[in-house]
Fold:
Amino acid sequence: MHFSDILREQGTTVSFEFFPPRSEKASGDLFRSVAELQLLKPAFVSITYGAGGSTRQLTHDLVLRVRERTKLAVVPHLTCLGHSRADIASLLDSYASAGIGTIMALRGDPIKGPSASADPGDFRFASCLVKFIQEFNEQGSHPDPRGFAVGVAGYPEGHHATPNRLREMDYLKAKVDAGASFIITQLFFDNRDFYDFRERCHLAGIRVPIIAGVMPITSLAGMRKMADLALGVRFPAPLLRAVARAGEDDECVRRVGLHWATEQCRDLLDHRVSGVHLYTLNKSTATREIYANLGVKDSTALVG
Ligand code: FAD
Structure:
């Protein structure tokens, strides 16, 4: 579905993110989660793309399976580092034929380790991928005359590789000027960082919907992993204090994390955020509990 149709249907979007599973069992678990989360009526679900294209085929196949088996609007992530123009064009062709209308265009991170390739590919930054998708759209290769809508990543606390926050905003604006029509942010735990980012985007002339990325902490190990994956993410002192009070009790840590994420979502919706994007880690329980804590059965009540 094209992002402008998603927006028209649900003014404020609530969406969920999944990653491609690597085993049959994990795939079964994911489809159970998808079936449960479908009842919450998300505006769309997005499917990540492993670093350096490591899940290229898995992501592609999962996108098509979710599209075939459900009525959900599916938004594939696509990273460009290490890819040729032909690699990307072939994925775009396949997604266009399958009726996919929206793509998240990302640079990705270089893979480290022995399997790393020295070839950087044809794209240096996500803005180059956004331009390439626009060229694809202009060739009329998509059955929808509008072509693909494109989303890009934003970083309320800054991207770790660009310490210069003024330049970073120029780079984000370049992605929007190249044709991106919405932004999904990196996860964050202090909504003030998001509101400040949203204001800075506005000052920079960025006028597209900015969707807030929220990920509940469900365990101490998960929290440490988040610190590694979302480099630079700040855990506010009140959150750390609440987690410390929970001690080694996993269930208490989970309750603290869910309470925090619920309050983040409530506050974001009260502040008329364009959308909330929940990182599910392919599980449905935490997301369903957030909806229950907010006292709603599905997204229509959340955004109404
Ligand atoms: P870019 O916007 O290209 O930025 C990359 C870096 O280059 C930044 O530091 C930026 O400031 C800098 N930069 C940009 N333009 C220029 C320029 N012209 N000159 C100099 N410097 C410049 N990763 C995956 O591998 N798979 C995924 O599915 C995935 N999904 C994500 C979803 C979201 C919502 C977010 C927030 C991130 C996701 N990532 C994913 C992580 C992302 O790929 C990394 O954070 C990556 O390092 C940056 O990607 P980007 O698209 O923001 O790149």
The pocket of flavin-adenine dinucleotide is lined by residues 48-49, 51, 77, 79, 106-109, 125-127, 153, 159, 161-162, 168, 171, 175, 184, 186, 213 (CB under 6 Å).
